[in-house]
Amino acid sequence: MQNQNQPLLEVKGLKTYFYMEQDRVAKAVDDVSFTLKKGETLALVGESGSGKSITSLSIMRLIPSPPGKIVEGSVKLEGKELLTLSDRDMRRVRGNDIGMIFQEPMTSLNPVYTIGNQIAETLMKHKKMRKKEAYKRAVDLLKLVGFARAEEIVNEYPHQLSGGMRQRAMIAIAMSCDPKLLIADEPTTALDVTIQAQILDLMVEMKQKFDSSVLLITHDLGVVAEVADRVLVMYGGQIVEEATVYELFTNPKHPYTVGLLNSIPSLDEEVDRLDSIPGTVPPAHRFPHGCRFAPRCKHAMPECLEENPELRETDAHHKVRCYLYEEQGGEKVG
Ligand code: SF4
Question: How far, in Å, CA of 137 to CA of 123, rounded?
Fold first, then answer.
């Protein structure tokens, strides 16, 4: 039985490396620790190459191996260690306890089966339902995610649906087993702006209806502001800032977070991106020796080039990995 205070998901010291040609090692996720509370929506934010998607794939144990490998750390779901489970048990966890939504539903929906078939298969496999009952539940789930003509959609194939409809169908599949945790990796990136808002609203609604928690992976701080409770900002395979959404938007600390916030286009200003972040995320096999953000940071000091700063708590519920805040008496975390 779960202890009330126990986090739903607890990630500790996670390291996922990719072993490349010429003995190069890409430290895509490098010592990441965080917790996700029951009922919470936690956003993992960063540019592409920051390590956010590899973190979520590591949690689901879906890292292509080789070349990837989880080399260290712990991932616990309701106290159960996932990294040491057999492949069979892990498949069961993915079917029963974790629902997944990806950016492009076409990569996860099977083009040769009807939508109803794909939902029913999941229910028969993981909920041990009979075929008739599973199809009935599939129709109910499709209604729940907003399909007015659910009875027809069950018999349609993924290519017959629009992008937004496919994402709705994916959400129906993800929720079909009543998951404790929903992992959504860039769920709205491929969609038009109006459809994006509908899909986000649907995710929030489903989370409440199914009493789930959400780990949302996104590069879009607009999406974060809309749905998340707490945010982890990732850069160079590490967490560089952790705060509540309110704290992050009103009092961002890490220069990378400040740059991300400044690069959100504003409707009432003539947008220039002067304040956005110069340069790109360095490749994971060539992180600088000191602070990984130093080559792009306008505040970089000599010590920043010497050693990578630790993630430290600066205020309650706010952590940052930057030498600018060390003198504020920040306490080292983890
Ligand atoms: Fe910039 Fe230095 Fe802070 Fe890194 S540690 S973000 S280089 S000020």
Answer: 8
